[in-house]
Amino acid sequence: MILLVDDNKEILDGLSFSLKEAGYSVEEAFNINEAKEKYMDASIVILDITLPDGNGFDFYKNYLCDRNIPTIFLTANDSEVDIVKGLELGADDYMTKPFSTKELLVRIKKILMRKENNTVIKIKDIEYDIDKMKLTKNGEDIKLTSIELNILNLLFVSKGGIVRRDAILDKIWELTGNDVDDHTLTVYIKRLKDKIGSDIIINVKGLGYKLYEENK
Amino acid sequence: MLKDWVISYMKKINRIIIILIILLIPIVLYSVYKISEYKEYNKNYNNKINYIIDYVKTNTSLSDDDILKMINNNELNHNLIDKYGYNISNIGIINNNVSYTKYFIIEISILLGTIILFMAFYLYDNYKKKKELDDIIKLIDNINHHNYDTQIDSMSEDELSILKSEIYKTTIMLRSIADNSIKDKENLKKGLEDISHQLKTPLTSIMINLDNILDNPNMDDTTRNSFVKKIKKETYNIKNLVTSLLKLSEFDVNTIEFIRKDIKVKELIDESIEKVSSLADLKNIKINIDCNKTDTLYCDKMWEVEAISNIIKNALEHSNIDSVIDIEYSDNKVYKKILIRNYGSTISEEDQKHLFERFYKGSNSNSDSVGIGLSLSRNIINMDNGNIYVESGNNKTEFIIKYFKKI
User: Fold this and answer.
1) B161-170: per-residue pLDDT in tens?
2) CATH number attached to the domain at A120-211
3) CA 20 to 30 Å from A43, out of A26, A85, B26, B380?
């Protein structure tokens, strides 16, 4: 169960919707009082820092830290980020507003994998560490360019589903500020496949791409 | 510091010496005069006694022995002068009239002279003090009218000189605080105006696209999706804008705290490149780095990386596809230099002039970029005691950053 703590109803509704769509069970809390009653069963807490009845950091320190419940802070500005880093949670456990739900979902996935001490996804003879963003084949690093790595990451993060071509184009725009045409995308995918060698990227005609899956 | 103390101490001594000299002159003169007066009176008395002795010797039969006894006589048996009705205190048995007048005149002259000398000294002193006070008043007046170009006269008397210099310092400081606070307010106002203006563009685009979608429920999916994607893009633009503008505003009101350390230049460059690696990848641009592994720069790493990556991003945006970017580091006694060179369209003279201005978009810039990156970079570099300029020509552009060493 994921506990969402934020005093803004729009954000709460939006996030709740995406998380449920992604298959998680979700609980909502508008303030610290409500959060105090619901956090016990949470496997992850998404915690806004500025809440009407107190400070998110205090709530974390007093309730979540000792129980080792992974928390993702939602921060509005850099100074709050510094405090989070100061709490020595590791730089990944915060998101600065505004953020996209996709980013949040990826973060959640990473945290859950980290919790199992298993951030490496294996397909055939390929291993990809989602946390470190490293690709290895038979123990050897495969070097990818920045865009190739991000496309691959997108595929692994969405493992089990299909990544639409649109989504990849979007990602490239996010990273570079430039629009890339369809043909260029095809070239990127081909180059990626060539570098990987093994056949793990599957073309889903008319839709996009997905990763090879064992049990068919 | 010691030197200043010695100088002011010597000035005090100077003053005391002058006063002592002014005192000494009349004292010396007076002593000399008094001594010579005494000598003259003495001479007169001795002469008179001589005349008396001579007369006695010539006109009486007293022996030499008796005359000696007479000279040494201390008894007053008859007191003839009193008997003849003369007052012994007043009578001038000895003719000292001429001498007396002469000496009286000299004595009065010396007295008057001394008084005049002292008064002159006092008036001069006062005059100088008044002049200094006037100077101070004029100084403050100048500063109030923004004329900071004044020299402090260091040749004058001590306390006032110190006062003058302290007033000068305080007034300048107050003035500059007042000026800065007005400037801060103006900057803030302009900053807010800029933000509001810049936000209106993407917001307008969003509203138009939303209206299109809502007004046309029967629109086909592809068209609707393309509008929605446009809206998404514009929200990202707003997000980037807000982040950049916040950073710039922090600079405007000087609220940023830089945490400076010695950072390896190679590390700075590598991290800056990492931030824009996707763009470099997209245009297939190879970045060459020429810098050794040990050179360091004393700066705030996070901000400096922000600054340098913005410049590299700019270089990438104006590069041709499949070209290279050179980043070179060099070092001399005066400054440390980072040079970023790209090959692509030349930046026009006109653009070069305004390149680092906020919101300035060059003639061939990306339409989604807002023109803040280079302005922010320049602010950051200036804070780290450096400056940046651009040279462009023959389809080659160089950004040159120089960090000046403290001498």
Assistant:
1) 777 778 778 8
2) 1.10.10.10
3) A85
